[in-house]
Amino acid sequence: MMHMRTANPDAAPEPRIRMNDFGALSPPELGAWTPRRSVSIVIPAYRSDETLPLTLASLAGQSYPAHLMEVVVVDDGEGEPLRLPESAPENTRVVRPGPGGWGIANAFHTGVTAAEGEVVHRIDADLVLQAEHVEAQMRWHHLANYLVVLGHLRFNDYDPASLTASEVHAAVVAGTVGKLFDDEGTPQWTEAKWDETADLRWAGLDVFRLNVGATASMTKELYLSTGGMDTALARGSDTEIGYRLAQAGAVFVADRESHCRHLGSSTVMRRQNEVQRYTQPYMAERIPYRQYRPLRGPNRRYAVPKVEAVVTAGGCSLEDVRATVNGLLGSWMSDVRVTLVGPWGLLTDERRSPLDDPLLDLRLVRETFRGDDRVRFAEEVAGTAFPSPFRFTCPAGWVLEPETLGRLVGFAEERALGLVSLVVDERQEPVAARLERTAALSRARLLVRPGEDLEEVVHQVAGTVWEDGHRWGILPADDPASTAEDGLEAQAERWRRRAERWEVRALRWKEKALAMQMRGLDPVSARRLRRAVGKGLRLVRAAGGRRTGAAGTRDRRSGG
């Protein structure tokens, strides 16, 4: 369960960063500012007797004030207790994980819980840091509380006999760490992404993938708000906590001045295919993104669904709730879980008149979906769908066409929207469904001031739009086109509308395919796009659709 940080009315307003563009923040020049915040350097240590003394020696030479910095070494070994070398900074201590716990995720979480600093900074036990490494990251944490700062890393060949702790410390203090190595080192794979995205300012919704551990920092409060590291993960825990940090509203900052050298290559570099094969099943259960979940195969359900759908059952008829939930569960996007909200605690087993029970509809709804593990019952729902990336809220009595939910999610992802509101009824009080992006709602909740409208903050950090729910395929339950037991005429009308939307999408695919070919796309990818275009056009012809022309394309904002 995610714990939300509440706004402090006496604190200075936090800067409001849209998406991951932290360009409005102005970090001070190194050495030209006055640090105030404390930091705990957490080092998971396992079989690192040769490299840990060098890492600690480089920490002893840091420019960040010693009275604001502590080092927590987590001894994750099975043998004799780890003893600190003479090269360790003065404020360094060793802690051990609890009984039965092991692995880097468990070690880091143990260190964070023991840490006393406002900020926690993960450092691997095989790094040599430049003197300004910690200072470079900490200056960002003086500007905002919801940043995850990533350090700059190069891999260097390492001979254990070639370096001593005293040599490392002297080089750090003198600013000559580079001279300890024969070359500039091999860049981490993330560096190319930094280059493409202005050090992550222009990164997309999957920026969390760049959180690869080794050297990263965040406030302890932000870390704990996510529930902390998944200690069940032996590998991939950095990516997984990065995903949950993103859903908690974090902004990821890449700092090239927070530089360090990795002693030797990483396991991923040496055994990439094996690592990917191992982590894929674990990531698929926890991270609802395409690169972790296969596009083909049976309609799978995962521990963390892509969409949490919420329907209020209290005060609604069985027929309305059943129609809405059946429509959601019948979506072509199967990666969805439904939460039914109602006063379920009122349903007791005391004697009653079965047909005159004032809670009859609520009782019948519970029985209708009691055996479906895709449906949960809740008295109330949390502020966001965390850790799912989307929440879709739909009033009972309205039914989604099978493709609607997937199209809405794609629309929100393409534009990185925080909230899509869909008007379904304007006859009296406006009735609306809504799709919320968890990361945007979480950030808005971190930033909203007392008395301020939350949706306005969502608009500032991500963007909000209003759409026509009918044109997106959200229909009243009593509309023949929204039911499976309709006549041929209603079925034909439903397929005609779907065919029109498929044709618009097919035209867009064709445009993208041609544009990418113009940019010299590789032949394999170009063929895949052409096949996708062909599939869309075949579906249009089979359904008897007709071209909507330019007007249909323009109507896309309203779901046309």
Textual characterization of the structure:
- The strands form three sheets. Strands 1, 2, 3, 4, 5, 6, 7, 8 and 9 form a nine-stranded mixed beta sheet that branches. Strands 12-11-10-13-16-15-17 form a seven-stranded mixed beta sheet. It has a two-stranded antiparallel sheet with strand order 14-18.
- It is of the alpha/beta class and 560 residues long.
- The protein has helices at 52-60, 104-114, 133-141, 165-174, 190-196, 220-225, 237-247, 267-270, 272-286, 318-329, 360-369, 404-415, 438-447, 454-461, 488-518, 523-543, 549-554; strands at 39-45, 69-75, 92-95, 119-123, 127-129, 147-156, 186-187, 215-219, 251-263, 307-312, 336-341, 375-378, 390-393, 398-400, 419-425, 431-437, 464-468, 474-476.
- The longest helix has 31 residues, at 488-518.
- The model is unreliable at 1-10 and 544-560 (pLDDT under 50).
- Helix 13 packs across helix 14 (454-461).
- Helix content is 34%, strand content 18%.
Q: Globular, elongated, flat, extended or rod-shaped: what is the shape? A: elongated
What proportion of the residues form beta strands (DSSP E)? 15-25%
Assign the structural class, choosing from mainly alpha, mainly beta, alpha/beta, alpha+beta, or little secondary structure: alpha/beta
Average pLDDT rating: 87
InterPro entries: Glyco_trans_2-like, Glycosyltransf_2, Nucleotide-diphossugar_trans
Domain Glycosyltransferase 2-like: 40-164
Organism: Planobispora siamensis
Coiled coil: 485-512
